[in-house]
Structure formats: C-alpha cells, structure tokens
Design a protein that fits this description.
Blueprint: H1 3-10, H2 14-21, H3 24-34, H4 39-48, H5 52-69, H6 72-85, H7 91-118
Length: 119
C-alpha cells in the first residue's frame, strides 16, 4: 500500500495534505506518528472515568491532528464529538461516539497496512 492508497482507505484527502506539507516523505512521517498519539486512549479513558472535561480536550486534539493531516472522515466525526462534549456528556455525544471509534479504527488499520508495506 502506498501513501495515497492509505489516504483512500482511511477516508482522507491526499491532495490536500500534500498541498500543505509539500512532500510525501513529510506526510508519511506524520501519518506514522499518529498511531503513537495518546489522544484516542485519553479520550476512551476519560469517558470511562466520566471526566468529560478531559474527554473534550482529547477529542479536540484528535480533531486538530486530523484536520492537519487531512484525515477527513475521522476529522468530521471527532469534530462533531468535540462540539457535543463542549457542555459535558449529552445524548448527542453518546450517538456520535460509536462513529468516532469506527473512524479511528479505520484510520489505524489503514496506517498499520501502510507500515507493513514500508517495513
């Protein structure tokens, strides 16, 4: 799998990220670092602990990283979750969370496939 195929698999915008970061090497570097970002684990932990302020911060961080890397699909769901968590846990947040989890898994799976290809 090449980087462009990875972006297709994760529902991202390859052309947008290349226009911003300029080189595939730089994009790949940051894409691979995404898996080490603790924000998703922090989000899950904060929600388990009912710490909605921390959950908001974590979802906001995910949203920002996804926007910078043009991970469009995960950006949209994490943005919706961030807005829903702005005032604490809401029924809307409960409805959006499964989509964020699915989008995150799709993104992580695509990046893992990229890693396997490049060694």
């Amino acid at each position: 799998m090449c980087l462009k195929e990875c972006y297709i698999a994760l529902g991202g915008d390859y052309d947008d990220v290349i226009s911003r970061l300029r080189t595939e090497k730089l994009v790949q570097k940051f894409v691979l670092k995404f898996l080490n970002d603790p924000s998703y684990d922090n989000l899950c932990k904060a929600l388990d602990e009912e710490n909605y302020e921390e959950a908001f911060r974590a979802s906001h961080t995910i949203k920002g990283v996804c926007q910078n890397l043009s991970f469009t699909k995960l950006y949209h769901s994490s943005h919706a979750l961030t807005e829903a968590l702005r005032s604490g846990w809401t029924p809307e947040a409960a409805q959006i969370l499964p989509q964020v989890k699915a989008d995150y898994q799709q993104t992580a799976d695509a990046i893992h496939a990229l890693q396997e290809t490049i060694g």
